[in-house]
Amino acid sequence: MSKFLQFRCDLDNFIDELQNKIENNNTKVKELLTQKEQNYANFVKPFEMMEEDLEEFFTPLSHLNAVNNSEKTQKVYTDALPIITEYSTLLSQNLEIYNVYKTILKEEVDTLNDEQKRVLELNIQNFELSGAHLDEKTKKRLQEINISLSEYSNEFSQNLLNATNAYTYIIEDEQDIQGLPQSEIENAKFEEDGEIKYKLTLQMPSYIAYMTYGKNREIREELYRAYVSRAPQNADLINKILALKYEMSKLLGFENYAQLSLATKMAKDEKSVLNFLNSLLDNSIAQAKNELKELQNIAPYELKSHDTAYYSEILKKEQYEIDEEEYRPYFEQESVVNGMFEFLHKLFNIRFEKIDEKLWHPKASSYNVYENEQLKAKIYLDLEARESKRGGAWMHNWQSYCTNEKADELPASAFVVCNFPPSSEKTPSLLRHDDVVTLFHEMGHTIHHILSSVNENEVSGVNGVEWDAVEFPSQFLENFAYEPMVLQMFAKHYKTEEILPDIMIEKLVKSKNFLSAMGMLRQLEFSIFDFQLHTKLYKGDEVQNLLDIIREKTAFIKPPKYNKFQNGFAHIFAGGYAAGYYSYKWAEVLSADLFYEIIDEGIFNSQIAQKYLTTILHKGGSQSMGILYHELMGREPDVSKLLRLNGIK
């Protein structure tokens, strides 16, 4: 197998290098198109590898801009976006390439393997969804739209990061910090003019800690207000993004952006998606109302949005005698990572070996990954929160496993990024159990990408997987973060090395579906809002009005008017989830269904777990997930398993 790429990003010369690569690619495209005999081997394969090479060059910049954001990375990334977008758009609209792909598929259909056919079919579809077959004026307008959308999305994300970093709340009265985890108190503490004070921020660990444990209701409301009203300038960007996506859909022959989005997904049509979401909603409402009643009963006043996390924690302690803070010493970051690796080794016979190398930040680390003792891939972990890193958690695929034109094997690599409580000289990074679940989730994405055995990079790993199926492997793996025999592999006290006691594991498992129907309604609110928002053109106040109408059914505590959630909904305005946020629930059906099959077989003795490795993980995007899932289970997915997983009757 060839060597892994070395992580490098020369910011000073990046734009020049990018332009050189694009010029070389454009020259190569002309050469490929002037060949007399065009076939898969001499046209499609070199074209694929050329695109993979450019992707491998560009990814370190986008990664660096997300995890070590600075004025310099912002500038270079902002300058690079229109260049790469213009190149990609022109390529995706090239009628000559489109026609060659159609000819090769037609003439070589009997000699191509399934992977190669899938590459051609997806490319032909992408050409058509990019307008390759349309007139020059329309293609030019689509190109302008793509460039503007990439710039607006980047601006949306940057506004959110800047607003998050700009806010601080200083506590001077020690009473107001009481009740918070000791590690969060230590992180917040600073000295000014000889006095001890405490700084709260909108970074996830700090914000969640105060909303969950902070006793001062006024401070909770102040933090909540700051969080849900971040980046008001994004309202204008939302209008621009929605208008452009609607215009793009019309130019491509669709009624709306939701239709365009579904063209590349498992779900058949708009009706299927909304019926699916509304069915889950109808099944969850009664239980959610009962859950809220229980929550209201323990509060001395009418609950507001900034109270729910605080009273949820109190109710959780009452019902399950569970104190999240008691668990954190058992979830020391390094122990959790190593335990998760051990679990994956037992389940799939994959092994992780740490590498000693200098990366973009001292807290980042890298590992070689072996499958059946053969070097297979490489992963990079960057798990702790810091100001220069955007919020949330994600897997970013870098290299894709494939074979090149000479049939050499090329390895896969990926980044795993989270925002866990930072470690310091005094305290290690102690995770909440939610953080453990997040890590398992992102590792599910990661192994889906890096364990691929597909030779064609465009359908290897997560490439080519339908968007509403791509969350399936991640959600499947996160379910194991609640399994007692898995927890016992890594949940040990960072000071005493004591394994998490059985009684605490039992409480954690029982509490898994605490307020789960309310949680389901919140996710359905996001999904329905996103999907309906893209079924016609909404402008200005219509966006908020739509959200308010949906909330009448999904939100039993009415959010305050200053809550502008949409201005921070980066998944759909700065990520790839527009008209696709429903995918989380769609994929969760597959993950819940498979999970219970494996649990019933006894996890480590499971035959279907091995079949999952060979049928889903090894095959990447080489076939539709609907086909692969049927091959795995021998039947259609069972929707009732999702309700069972969430404890909804």
From the structure above, extract its key features.
649 residues, single chain, globular, alpha+beta, Glutathione S-transferase Yfyf (Class Pi), Chain A, domain 2, 3-stranded antiparallel β-sheet, 5-stranded mixed β-sheet, Neurolysin, domain 3
Question: How would you characterize this protein structure?
Answer:
- The protein is of the alpha+beta class and 649 residues long.
- Among the domains are: 14-92 and 94-133, Glutathione S-transferase Yfyf (Class Pi), Chain A, domain 2, CATH 1.20.1050.40; 167-228, no CATH class; 329-515 and 584-645, Orthogonal Bundle (Neurolysin, domain 3).
- The protein has 26 helices and 10 strands.
- It has helices spanning 14-33, 40-67, 71-92, 95-107, 114-129, 136-166, 182-188, 204-213, 217-228, 234-251, 257-262, 270-297, 308-320, 324-327, 333-348, 433-450, 472-478, 484-487, 502-511, 516-533, 541-554, 570-573, 583-601, 607-617, 625-633, 640-645; strands spanning 168-171, 189-192, 195-201, 350-355, 365-371, 374-384, 394-397, 402-403, 409-410, 412-420.
- A 5-stranded mixed sheet has the order 4-5-6-10-7, with helices on both faces. A 3-stranded antiparallel sheet has the order 1-3-2. The protein has a two-stranded antiparallel ribbon with strand order 8-9.
- Strand 8 (402-403) and strand 9 form a beta hairpin.
- Helix 12 (270-297) runs antiparallel to helix 20 (516-533) and helix 20 runs antiparallel to helix 21 (541-554).
- The radius of gyration is 25 Å and the shape is globular.
- The termini are far apart.
- The model has no long low-confidence stretch (mean pLDDT 95).
